[in-house]
Structures
1.
Amino acid sequence: MGPLFPLGLIGDELNMLIGFIIGIGFGFLLEAAGFTNTRKLAGVFYGYDFVVLKVFFSAAITAAIGLFLMNHYGLIDIKATFYPKTFWIPTLVGGFIMAFGFIIGGFCPGTSICAAVTGKIDAMVFVLGAIIGIFGYAFTYESIWEDLRNSGAMGRVNIAEWIGVSDGTFILLLTIVAAIAFFAVSVIQKKVTEKNDYQL
Amino acid sequence: MEKSKTYMNSYLAGILIGVFMIGAYYFSGEGLGASGALKAVVVATVDGVNHDYAKDAHFFSARVQNEEQSPAKSWLVFEVLGVIAGAILSAALAGRLKMEIIKGPNITNNKRLIFALIGGLLFGIGSQLGRGCTSGMVMSGMGVLSLSGFIGLIAIFGGGYIIAYFFRKLWI
């Protein structure tokens, strides 16, 4: 019965070793999928490369289906995981700030770390910027951010329950939307790259 | 030259990342994060320089109460150390380990680096305010059907599409 660490079935040290091993898989796949190339990442916003959308949605849906089935068959209790709490206001505002960060900087934190350690100088600068940003946020936390960050608290909210459908129905709808999106972006990408050679 | 440009199939990479995410939740109850590890670096640095300040400042206080264990010793830090090792391994196998600046065709290297710094700064702030980044909050949140993951998805990618036009000269 999982999750093993939160239920006290494995110790702290083993848990961190598992984190390291899972990280290796995650980093390997991000690099292998091309996520260290900032132009491939930015392509999702300009129609010439949709690798971000394809990887992102197939990962989220695979995990959603897998965890749903494991929860259903009693292999994991999703409620016992460190399930993210929803604070809708700071997530919306912070998400919009991250949108600017993504378009201007061409990375997100995970991809920038992979790119920085594999030699991309622009990514090294992005990571430096992110660390400076967190320092700046930390030192101005009480005066600027604290109230905003704690606003809009809703607790642990499952989107399917929130909408009023079953988890299975929601995952099915999400999969259908993703399938349509996968088809649509392949058409868009073909049209955009026919007109222009982006030489990635 | 051609060989080094070959990337893994996007859907295959996505499905395998999903499998690792299931593993992360099953073993550790955690999603796949990134920005949290950068935060841990900041917290550990400030705590190391001035523990008395960190103990009282709201941003740091909850994370530095345990006198026995460094705030840098967390699951996320070990996960991201793994990410670093994995990325280097993959790049080495594919012949992609080299120093370079990747940028749009119409901007200079200096401009690219200045914008990378500004973008990183914004992402650093946004990920703290929004309680996680694209991987830890959005992708991993979506995996467990957390509402916050979907709000983050709409804000980051919806926001990105709204503003993309104004920054097109950076990329195309």
Note: The first helix of chain B runs from residue 10 to 28.
2.
Amino acid sequence: MRVPLSWLKEYVDITLSPEELATQLTLAGLEVGSIDYIGVEAAPGSAWAPDLSGSEPPEHIPWDAQKVVVGELLEVNQHPNADRLTVPVVGYGEGRSIAVVTGAPNIKVGMQGEKVALALTGAKLIDGHSETRKWVTLKPTKLRGVASEGMVCSELELGLSEEHEGILFLPDDAPVGTPLREYIGDVVLDIDLTPNLSRALSIVGVAREVAAITGQPLKLPEPQVVAEGPSIEGRAKVTVEDPQDCPRFTVGLVEGVTIKPSPWWMQQRLRLVGMRPISNIVDVSNYVMLEWGQPSHAFDADTIQDRHLIARRAKAGEKLRTLDNQQRQLSPEQIVVADPRGVQSLAGVMGGAETEVTDATRNVLLEAAIWNPPVIRRTVQALKLPSEASKRFERGVDPQAPPVALRRALELLRQVSGGTVAQGLVDVYSQPWQAQQIELTCAEVRRLLGIELSAAQIADLLSGLGFECEVGVDSVLVVVPSYRLDVTMAADLVEEVARMYGYEKLPNTLLADELPPQYVDEVQISERRVKDTLVACGAQEVITYSLTSLEVVETLNGTAPDASEYLMLENPIAPERSVLRRDILPELAQVLADNLREQSRVVLFEVGRVFHPQPSRTLPDEPRRLALALAGQRNVVSWHEADPPLLDYFDLKGILETLLERLGVDAQVTFTPADDARFHPGRSAYLIQTAEGTSLGVLGELHPDTRDRLGLTVSRAVVAELDLDALLLLQMPPRYRVIHRPPAVYQDIAVIAPTSVTAEQAHRVIQAAAGPLLEHVSLFDVYTGAPIPEDQRSLAFRMSFRAADRTLSDAEINKIREKIIRRLQSELGATTRS
Amino acid sequence: MIEQLEQVEKQALAELEAITTVESLRTWRSTYLAKVGPIAEISRGMGKLSAEERPRVGQRINAVKQSLQGAYDALEQKLIAEQRARELEHDRVDVTLPGRPAPAGRLHPTTQTLREIERIFSNLGFTVWESPEVETDEYNFGLLNFPPDHPARDMQDTFFVKMPPGSPKVVMRTHTSPGQIHAMRKFAPEPVRVILPGKCYRMEQVTARSEMMFYQVEGLAVGENITMGDLKGTLQEFATQMYGPEATIRFRPSYFPFTEPSVEVDARCFLCSGKGCRMCKYSGWLEILGAGMVHPNVLRNGGYDPERFSGFAFGMGPERIAILKYGIDDIRWFWSGDLRFLEQF
């Protein structure tokens, strides 16, 4: 809501500077987002002040009091040397006048008495002749041989609007010689209103708040109307079919109007608030809406059959051409205003074209009603037709406002249209508003705010806002005014007390309440451990969108995914973000590809939830996943290593092994070759939970086809995706093994076995055969080639043996070694070498 | 004999003078001080001497041996030191050359910020809790006191999830606040203090300033003696720890359907210190979080008697905190996965 202070001041005296007022309003919940200074300056040093020092002027500029004044055209002469130029002589008070040269097309030779905005030498304005927006400081000049000592200004040059077709003409009664800033300078507060602040969607509403905040009295006269016409009774009729839809419907009548532009001051205020002036009748309706918060609608009375307005639901199949000339298909979900012939207006949203006020209109029926907020909201949403009126009806309009606003509007209509107002109103008010009473105890204020206030203090704070208060012993009985539909319970009043007391003045205390039992979320802690481990392994955490597309999934998978397995958005904002991910990898692979265009080494991981719809439940499962993606060079290129090798399967596996070991899961899982078309068939594996035989995820080098689909620019990329929830369930705490003092004995053994024998098989046989004295075994070399027979390979293991109580003898070790050799031979068909 | 001895000593010391390497020093030692050599030979001749002469000559032999050994030790020490010095000189590197890269991983800046928030609030007795990202309309709005067809719903543009006919409405949660209901329903009537971090979604165009996906951290404290003063004190404590003791914050009334009274918390603009700049839209203040006293209807929906229990809730965005802290110009970097961005934190 944009609030010109000149308008606000009609209803409350403002004793604060605009900046202080803006701060006070903000601290009372009416957040001032910005301040527009129209022709005037901000307080020095204020944060709100626009930047006037830049080369580009702000939207509005200040006008120098001496150099930009109200002028009067004394005479307008033709320029002697140019057809398109004129030379007006402009007076600006006390016998002072100057001649200026202008090309403004709306200045005509012979004009006299028109009031204009006159800028004198030295005035700093916006350059009207420049393509780009920039400053200009007026200098005396000569145009085609005629001296010009000033300028008659356009709205653009004054920073009022973009209008530069002609100069600005001021009203006839503009005071000549007065600084322009005193005449039409203004300050406009732009207040960001939260949905509960419908009461402040009007000048009067803001004035009430300002009065309460600053302690200034509200100047709110009951609007009076000079009604010289015959009574409205019998000359206009209203029927309300359902009071739930329309608790109140009020109508006034003005006859003999002349349609013309509204007066300049009214237009100017509408513009300052952000509405476009249209004609005197429409402008009055809008003006009163902005002033009182009560929307109204003007019908051409002669187009309404029997001058009979009916508030009812639309019938199926009914249509209405609205003011914007759109044909609207209506439904019984919507409330309309009809006459006996049919629908004439979409209640609370937009009028109909057939009954709108036109240049030919002589008589006007002015409607001010209260409509059911949810119905209006649904109508706006169904027809995508928000309006200033519907904005107010959706949020709730003061049920007592219609007759007040109508009287104000009728009087203004009389003044600006020359019409005659019929006496009285038709007011169908079948569900009169009942004032609500709420008891607020001092204990409740103390309980919720932590401050001690007496009943009298509470009453004092509330009555400033218009609440009627009856002070009791330890409580206040509060009557809620009609414009406070948002207040329905004690908690709402507590907020009003806090607002008026000042949030800033409330004490800052720390929770003194008993400390609740501390619950530990194990999964959170584990997730932390996972991330920290991966970071320690040199991986960078990324977070990708949980919203993706089936195309991205297909890019990774190579086949179209089964759409029924995915949750989809009803109202996506873009097709590439329309599907809830089932896996992390499709988006992570994209991020990998993106990074490879810039980086030589990319090691990424993501931990996050994916979404699996469940046929038997409304909400999906949201399992936690871990995904990794590695590509590029193992090390950063440097003078130490000019061409590091590419990251491969074993880099990925190494990181996972570190993680599994850290989680205490390593002994419970095995890696088995994977069968997954996305991956290289010989360089991918499933991580299997050994005991159950279930898969915890997959890892491996991407298939070259997959790489091509992703547009990867490297010859190798490795990725993994694991079910982190399942993995975390297997976690084991570290178990301490006693460290024995006697020295270890080290033995190497080379196992020569068919290539079909896996390293893991050989490892297990050694482990099983060696018995308890084997402390550790690790593979340190893999060799194929001469002299090893073809289709065989050599796996070299280093073993360490240690006993708790003695140094092992050669004889003991040899016995074990022989046993290992025998078992390798019998179980794997392997020979051995030392 | 003594003459002979002195002759040997003289010669040995003279030869020693000329030695410059450890190798020739070792040769010298094996020449003069080994079991075979001129001095050993002289010693063997002692048997021919008289009993009176024998001790005198013996002493003399020992003295020469000691003298030569002493000279040897001194020179050895000197030569080793010289050799080490040469080696060190040889090993000298250009210390300005870059080190061997040790690529470090990093946590996402959002995770880092979340951890900072979690650390501060766990010191205040809050437990970290999680709740689902896909919610029913009821949990996301209804139970949080958003009436159907109320303009408050416009505050949060919502992604709806396609569901089979007859199913309840399902949404991508627009805030972490549904976690309040989950937490309350789990713990009522016990008091509760939790913070709920997680992803949220809004149907918004992605621009430099707005995102369709963002993280939020919800905080909730419910108990029998919790006041708005406690809310203020807790958030003041948070701001001091998060932004430093010089951070100035202010509390002003706002509106959320699920709190009453509702609060918006602003921090004095970090960039211009309140003088007014583009970042704070010429107000001098930056919104950092929303909060309030839990609405009685929400307490009731969570299983608490609002006449007995009260509580506060707050919500903040870690991306916004990081943006303000680091002066990040474009929110789209967060989910881009771009290492050029992520490696800066």
Note: Chain B touches chain A through 105 residues (CB under 8 Å).
3.
Amino acid sequence: MNMEKGSSVRQKQIFYVFVLFFLLCAIAITAVYSVSIGQVSIPFQQSMQIVLHTITNGHLGSLDQVESDSYTNIIMQVRMPRVVFALLIGMGLSLCGVVMQAIVQNPLADPYILGISSGGSLGATFAILVGFGSGTVLAQFGVAFGAFAGAMATSILVLVLSSIGGKVTSIKLVLSGVVIGALCSSLSSLVIFFANDAEGIKSVTFWTMGSLASSSWSKVPIMAIVVLAGCFLFLFQHRVLNTMLLGDESAITLGINLSVFRKLYMIIAALITGTMVAYSGMIGFVGLIIPHICRGLFGSDHKRLMPASLLFGGLFLMWADVLSRVLVANVELPIGILTSVIGCPLFIYMIVKKGYNFGG
Amino acid sequence: MQLIVESLETKLGKKEIVKNISLLVENQKFVGVVGPNGCGKSTMLKSIYKSLPTHKGTVVLGDMDVLKTSQKKISQKLGVVGQFNEMYFDLTVEQMVLLGRTPHKKLLEVDNQADIDIVENALKQTNLLDYKDRSYLSLSGGEKQRTILARTIAQQPQFMILDEPTNHLDIRYQLEILQCVKKLNIGILAALHDLETAAQYCDYLYAMKDGRIYTSGTPEEVLTPETISELYQIKCETYKNPITNQLGFVYQI
């Protein structure tokens, strides 16, 4: 009896490691596939040779069979940054999703729950329709700056509002987020109402649907540092994150003051989300759904949940990006649409097939 | 390890809930706190384990001044089994009990074989070995409470505070929990609502009313018809149960 149980635990562990390995391989293959499609279609074989050759600095792979010299340029300079962006943002979104759900102890939370989405939107709307005035330093950063500033300002406001009267509790956080979010949304509507700028309003709409089109190598370092540092940090926070699930009362008796950790984690998550929102707009659903899918597969223990969510989130957004480019010929769909369209059926499948009951 | 509480006062908002309470739990004694709902039992216990801020007084556990010590240090010595709380995310029983090791771990430290053994042992003491891989949320009330007790045992505390640990539980589970706690042989301070169990398990009793200690002593000294009538505003007779030789109670309004 005991031996059987031992082996079932071991089987689960082997399954988990296998899934992580599979996700890593899938990410690598998807990356190569993703860079080979586009206006100029480059055969998969050649893409692989080019990527291998460039990454290993010529030690592996050869460029002998590559048909055109411009291929290397297209892949490494034009398409690769976008793939890296998709991976990083996918990881970042699911990371913040897992963390936010733990912070507010609510399965409905996503990275944008603290009013970050409406704050970011307000900032971006302001930047697009009103602008910071030409010639100022702010004008150079434009929409990205507006979005980041808006996102950070709202999350700080939410944090301050929920700290009133002592402890930061999950209910106060959610309510403050909703209230500040509503305020920002109506301010955005006000700006749009008074703006006499059809073109601008269209860009605002596009912005709220998310896009990876602005990716470039020059933006990758900031994104990579912020997201990877966040991932690294939270990979080792599983003990506190698990304790968060128990609630304030139990956490205190285990020596952990949740109020402090909530604030700290929220600031870090807001920074990551703000940076992502600045560069890629609002990409919904990933941060909500990926953590739930991974919980359904591996349970709520953050030690397992975190690595799986990171990899799965990255892979998911890479595929959403691929589909956004190939589904309609010569048109690039906003990626935010795709994430919901692929995400929903996946989630429904989880509920129906696995009997998953939303973490509870 | 002994617990000394002196002139403890706690306010919730502006209202004084705990008024100048002093009590003593001697090493390895099982001490109970009885009193009607709203008399301040829970608030007092929460003040002792620092879940609520205290207004005045001192709490000393062994040689540690609890009110001036960090939460982590306290939790290495003091375990708490609280009343039920809601959870929206699921963990397995084993993962839940493993969280009891948290106070003894540095922030980045991982669980080792010693921790697994301690958890295994705690599960054994609470009769939960077969439930190891079960999901916590699928358990019955009694099983949940035993899991929380197992988690507190895995904490390896030298003193334990229990806040109505047997609330909502059927008789068998009540007895199992208290039996298990008694066997730990550490100092216990427990709020209890059932007078018969209090009489049966406690070495010493404090009776609370309106935020103050009304009286204290051995169960026989405290649980007299007069005191019980005064505490709970009922008519009460006590008798010696001929089968168990324990104190028995008959109540009437």
Note: Chain B has one domain: 3-252.
4.
Amino acid sequence: MQRFLILLRFEIKKVMARKKAILFLLALNVVPILAGFLAMLLFMKFKTIGIGGLQYSILNEAVRGLFTAHLKLFAWISPFFLALVIGDSISSESARGHLKTLLLTPVTRVQVLVAKAVAVLFFLLAAITVGGIFLQISLIVARFIGDSPDIIRDVTDGSTHLVSTMTALELLSISFVANMTMVSFFTLFALFAESAILMTFTGLIILMGLETFVLMAPTLGQFDPIYLRIADWCFTRHPSKLFELETLSGLMDGSLSIAADPVRSALLGSLGWALAFFSLSIFFFRRKSILN
Amino acid sequence: MPNSTIKPEFISAPTGNSEKVALRVKGLRKSFGKKVAVADLDFSIPFGSVAGFLGPNGAGKTTALRLLLGLVPADAGEMELLGNPMPSGRVAALERTGTLVESPSFIESFSGLENLWWFGSLHHPLSASRVDEMLDLVGLREAAARPFGNYSTGMKQRLGVACALLHTPDLLILDEPTNGMDPQGRAQMRDIFKKIHDIHKTTIFLSSHLIDEIQRLCDFVVIIDAGRTVRQGFVSEILSRERESWEIRLAPGGDLQKAREIAAKLPEVLTFENAPRGLIVSLAIGASPRLNRALLEAGIDVAALIPLEASLEETFLKLTDSKVL
């Protein structure tokens, strides 16, 4: 166990020590970082010259829009960055011979792959946490302004409220689980490629192909129902479901919870695919010839 | 002699229990598609020996080491490292084994010190003094803080050797450990290996294309060709069994051309070349009296017959039918 923990620390250090890791963290969180700074400017304006005739509904829409924009953008671009990080960690290390050096130490192949996957998940968690911190800054400012007597209370319906911290955490958790599927998918893919860039683009082409098929399946299903049955087996539909506008809106206005369908089934589906891809990765990695 | 007709011959090969054998390979086979990399390897390395692993380019040395260390799955065969079956006992075996397979590959952006620390810690918890000791041993103390990517080829090899020695292994498996080093560096590495062997009784299995290096360092040798073992045993026994070399000094005015013709006619004479005062002949064991008699009967006065030390290179070339290493 002690050896595995050292291996895990080593893998996390390798992932986070790369200069591009910091750039990736910033790129993935461009929306909440900008919004956080804007919120702080807004707060200074509010404390000095007031905010004029700001309506509560506009503030509410701005907060919901911020969460939706961040989660949608994160869902779109995270596969690209995750694929690059995994490609560096597995494909490039295999090509450069680092994997050979690692496997000449007394660690098992399963430990190596688990440590690499956990290190990438740590990177993902760091990315989500950075976004979460800046979103929280925006939320605090929004709540402060929302509680001000200067704000025009044009909303009488009690169900319309600002996103709570718990809801924010739920949204970030969904983002984490959905991206776990991507991490496992790219981990499997990286075992068969020796170039991070090649692996990234090939993997993304497959992802986009699957996603396009899932989007077209209802139309194609009118010609032949087999397309709908095939679409059921496309793993991308689970993460996509989690990032649908209805899902995000439902969670933010409280009409949906992560414990209830369809969110729960999409979460379980994502986790199931993540486990399946990772099990396959272990199967292949245990038999992989390390030739570099 | 065609390679395929050479039968493996084991001279003093250890066959006893696992404790006496550091490394054992039996019927090892591996193909990559249609290409047979390792056809049928059988050898055993005695515990406490310094063993050389020789073979022409493409003979399957590196593939055999990769198979042995569990980097590549074998198609067939049995392997044992320090009593542990491979690859199932890989972790237990590698805890006591130091390795350097081909060129060392460490993290380029990490310093030499960081690389040693991280990779070494995966064997055993390390003290800073142990890392410093190894850096001193291989002469990299001054360059320890530099990124590995900025190291020269020789420095990379030294760091690889330091990493292999870090956890005081019982067995060292080294593939071309002095590759890219200058003559002084090679001599220094030889001294390090001798010292490690003398102090810790470490078994060393060393693959190298430098036969001179193997002959200077090793007491045991395994020779392979085309993925098959062609000879294994103690160096002294192999050399004494294969052939003997003599310098034949002719008396002043001796007919060198006639001596060459006589030598060429004798089937026991394997090779001959001119020497300043006669010939240097390489011939089958025990054939020297016959050559001497033939020369005398032809009226050629032989002033002296001087035995020459046998060369591992000659033996190697004969066994592998190879001119290029």
Note: The radius of gyration of chain B is 23 Å.
